[in-house]
Design brief:
alpha/beta; 5 domains; six-stranded mixed sheet; 47% helix
């Protein structure tokens, strides 16, 4: 087989342009690169205009020949595309009795059947499937194949697997003319179907010449082993950077046997090494110094996923998480409304307090209407446009053709202003083109004449998006990353072959599970002969060494599963083995940035008002950490609340508070409670619960009503037990519930809401409801109390007036109890110990002193980074981004030190 340098190949292109010859390459990427190289040479020559070079890949040429036959009226059969073949195979698989137990995997089986048929077609063996079928699976596949062939013949279809055979027949009849000269460049081997067509071309006068590419092997030919797989990628990236810096016009190929597995890690290392300026998440990665031959699946892109969600949402509710993502998407709606939409998501959708796992468009618009009234600004105009479009479209339960449904999808996403009004990056623009291509491909499924439901059409669209790889726009980058199969027929200045281990190279080939083993063995299909696979890999490697100036094979000494071995082919080719440090200089250590310390002695501005929002939380935060109080209450650097599905702990506590308020407003005293019959008590409690829930989000569906019913039942069950605990106390009357008060403490005036004030014999009793596990009298003591709320409320009373204060632990089980202090026995339920009896006069005085000091510290801007407990106060504190606290620099108090010793 004659060899050609790239210069000789370009000269051959000049000849074919002038004559009637044609250059064929094995894949589209190689054909595209060769056309680009030819065009570049023409521009370098100063040529102003030239004929397009006759360079095609083999599949492109096959399709062009078929199109000529169709245009000439010779052929009337429909050449099936991949989606159409999948649809036909799926129909056959689903209807076949033997597949009845596998219908849930119909798409996977259809893909497997299509691949088996394509492989049989490539080896001209589709007519031999029945005669070789000796197993249950192969006989089933033979049935499917016969049904497929029969339906293609009856309906006038042609499978792409039989295209070479069909073109060969037209050559024999004279309907198809053979080209005068055919140059095949870089084909390692041909399938039997290709060989048969080439032989027919020769018989009809075509000069078929095959060429291999070569380059002056003046560069490095070596292999290197790095300690780990990450080290291997970093070593390769640093060598590529060095090579390109020395030869700025060089083209480097990076071959990766399992490109999908290594893509993310490789891209990360290339970004760090070749383009550190692209590390920012806001950078556009459309033009990088490297280029992947194929991109990710179309459905994996956020903008395409959003479009698919919009389409699904038109017929069924979406999970709340996906709706939330749509509200925050940069690809939907107007740019000016994006912040408003995101605030609606955070403040309304994720705070609905109803356990909505999914939501439809109409209920979301109800939420938007309520939010609009409060905010007095329009919300979700894009969603209203979608709703208008859907109402205009009419009955969507009526079956339609795929093309009609795809036009519906186009109109729907356009109503939502997808893909947005901001300028798109090159990759995003390519994704929109691929999306349009996917819609067009699904539209071709009307070839069968069937009308389908919208859900079926959307299933086909989603499948197409999953199986379509985004082809990124070619930037002719210096570094081209591809699989080994894509490297055929290409010439590079350097090739880096990654992951060259014995597990990856030679690649492992497997038998096709549906084709008869004897048939595959007789035709030497992939996976039937390990020696044949090795010889093919050896030939590929030798060819690679021939048409690349420099070749470097890399591997790792070990991975997470253990030791690795380099490919045995490398030693057979007697490549130079070099050490990593001999290949490229070690990476320079990261520059250490010296920390500059500056003392900020500037006084803080005075508080704008001594009336401070936050109530007891002001003192609680100041006690926990002065900096946290300053950051959250003075700088307003609060962490966004993370919404959860359904009621969170705070909202459940709020319902408890409102229920108890409504209950005691009607019952008033313990004496009245004791006198009530069981039915009266249950009725009053149920009414109080209903009153508490009325202020919550109204139910829009049976699911909402069922969820609220469960919440009510749970709350009723807990409070039924709690009322029995209330009866165990001494006599009392509830005189205030959820009372708003102002408390002046030191220089601050705080607005507070007191849960409950009871009148007991001789004075008042303060109640703080707790529905969680936290809350003990220990939280009130010390110079930095963890929960100063009740001590703060105690400042409203004279010491002789206050008869006690306690947490009402309204929890199911043994945790349900009163816990606090009483001035004398009999106010709280009986206790085995007398620890809850306290002289409150000195306590109130001590609390006043502590709280006054905390109030002055906050007012004066004491913002020391000094958490009371790193474990309790810092582990979940969002202000650590600002304070950068070092746990080792913090003093350890006696209690924490004792815990450390004990534990």
């Amino acid at each position: 087989m004659p060899t050609l340098s790239q210069t000789e190949l370009l000269d051959a292109i000049d000849t074919t342009v002038a004559g009637e010859g044609l250059l064929l390459l094995p894949n589209a990427r190689a054909a595209r690169d060769l056309r680009s190289t030819f065009n570049t040479r023409q521009r370098a020559r100063g040529v102003q205009a030239w004929e397009p070079p006759p360079i095609l890949s083999w599949p492109q040429w096959m399709n062009s020949l078929w199109s000529e036959l169709v245009v000439a009226g010779v052929e009337t059969r429909l050449l099936l595309n991949q989606a159409q073949e999948h649809s036909l195979w799926r129909e056959i698989v689903s209807e076949h009795a033997a597949a009845a137990g596998l219908l849930s995997s119909a798409d996977a089986l259809a893909d497997l059947a299509r691949s088996g048929w394509s492989l049989a077609g490539a080896y001209a063996a589709t007519h031999r499937l029945r005669s070789f079928a000796a197993t249950h699976d192969s006989r089933i596949f033979a049935d499917w194949a016969e049904t497929f062939a029969r339906q293609c013949g009856t309906r006038g279809y042609l499978s792409a697997a039989l295209l070479e055979e069909a073109l060969g027949r037209h050559l024999q009849t004279g309907a198809l003319a053979a080209p005068s000269t055919l140059h095949l460049v870089g084909f390692a081997e041909h399938t039997p179907a290709q060989e048969a067509l080439l032989e027919a071309l020769r018989e009809h006068g075509a000069a078929v010449m095959q060429h291999t590419l070569t380059m002056d092997p003046g560069g490095l030919r070596a292999s290197v082993i790095a300690p780990t797989e990450r080290d291997e990628l970093e070593l390769a990236a640093r060598w590529i950077r060095s090579f390109v810096q020395q030869q700025p016009t060089a083209r480097v190929a990076v071959l990766v046997p399992k490109l999908t597995d290594d893509r993310a890690g490789l891209e990360e290392v290339l970004r760090e090494t070749l383009a550190p300026e692209l590390q920012s998440v806001t950078e556009d990665l459309s033009s990088t110094p490297w280029e992947f031959s194929t991109g990710p699946a179309l459905s994996s892109m956020v903008m395409i996923s959003d479009a698919l969600d919009l389409a699904r949402w038109s017929q069924e509710p979406l999970p709340v998480q996906r709706v939330s993502a749509l509200l925050r998407s940069p690809y939907i709606g107007q740019l000016d409304d994006r912040d408003t939409s995101a605030r609606f998501d955070a403040a309304t959708l994720r705070r609905t307090q109803l356990l909505r796992l999914e939501i439809e468009i109409a209920p979301l618009l109800v939420l938007a209407d309520d939010a609009e009234k409060k905010q007095r600004r329009p919300l979700l105009a894009w969603l209203r446009n979608m709703q208008t479009f859907l109402q205009r479209d009419g009955d969507r339960s009526r079956p339609r053709g795929h093309a009609e449904w795809m036009e519906f999808v186009r109109g729907l996403v356009q109503a939502a202003n997808w893909p947005g009004d901001r300028p798109l990056t090159a990759t995003e623009l390519e994704a929109t083109r691929a999306w349009e291509g996917a819609l067009d491909t699904v539209s071709t499924l009307d070839f069968s004449g069937r009308r389908v439901a919208l859900s079926t059409a959307l299933d086909a669209l989603e499948l197409q998006a999953q199986t379509t790889a985004l082809s990124p726009p070619s930037t002719s980058a210096a570094v081209q990353i591809m699989s080994t199969a894509e490297a055929e027929a290409s010439v590079f200045d350097a090739v880096v072959f990654l992951r060259a281990t014995d597990a990856n190279w030679p690649p492992t080939a497997r038998l096709h599970p549906l084709l008869p083993w004897a048939l595959q063995r007789s035709l030497k299909m992939p996976g039937t002969d390990a020696g044949l696979a090795t010889s093919r890999a050896r030939a590929f490697t030798e060819d690679l060494l021939a048409h690349a100036g420099t070749v470097l094979f890399t591997s790792a000494a070990e991975d997470s599963s253990g030791k690795l071995r380099p490919s045995p082919l490398l030693s057979e080719l007697q490549l130079q083995q070099i050490k990593p440090e001999e290949l490229v200089a070690p990476a320079a250590p990261a520059t250490t940035v010296e920390v500059e310390t500056a003392i900020d002695a500037e006084p803080l501005p005075a508080l704008p008002s001594h009336t401070v929002k936050g109530g007891a939380t002001v003192l609680k935060l100041q006690a926990a950490c002065g900096f946290k109080a300053f950051a959250e209450l003075r700088l307003l650097a609060t962490e966004p609340e993370s919404g959860i599905l359904g009621l969170d702990a705070r909202e459940s506590g709020s319902l408890l508070h409102r229920t108890m308020q409504a209950f005691w407003e009607k019952v008033e005293t313990q004496e009245n409670l004791r006198a009530m019959s069981w039915i009266d008590r249950e009725t009053t409690l149920a009414q109080a619960i209903d009153a508490a829930f009325r202020s919550k989000q109204r139910a829009e569906s049976e699911w909402d009503r069922a969820y609220i019913a469960v919440l009510k039942q749970r709350l009723r069950s807990v409070l039924q037990q709690w009322l029995d605990v209330e009866l165990q106390r001494g006599e009392f009357s509830v005189i205030e519930s959820e009372q708003q008060q102002q408390i002046t403490i030191g220089p601050l005036t705080l607005d507070v809401r007191m849960d409950r004030i009871d009148s007991v014999d001789g004075g008042f009793f303060l109640v703080d409801y707790k529905s969680g596990f936290s809350g003990t009298p220990k939280d009130w003591i010390g110079n930095r109390p963890d929960d100063p709320q009740l001590p703060l409320y105690a400042q409203l009373y004279q010491p002789e007036e206050l008869r006690g204060l306690a947490f009402a632990k309204v929890r199911a089980g043994s945790a349900m109890k009163w816990i606090g202090y009483q001035a004398e026995d009999g106010i709280l339920p009986p206790s085995p110990s007398k620890k809850n009896i306290q002289d409150l006069t000195p306590l109130i005085a001590e609390w006043n002193e502590v709280l006054t000091r905390l109030a002055y510290d906050f007012a004066e801007g004491r913002a020391d980074v000094l958490p009371k407990s790193f474990k309790d106060n810092c582990s979940r504190c969002a202000q650590r981004l600002l304070c950068r606290v070092d746990p080792l620099s913090l003093p350890v108090d006696d209690e924490e030190e004792a815990e450390a010793v004990d534990g």
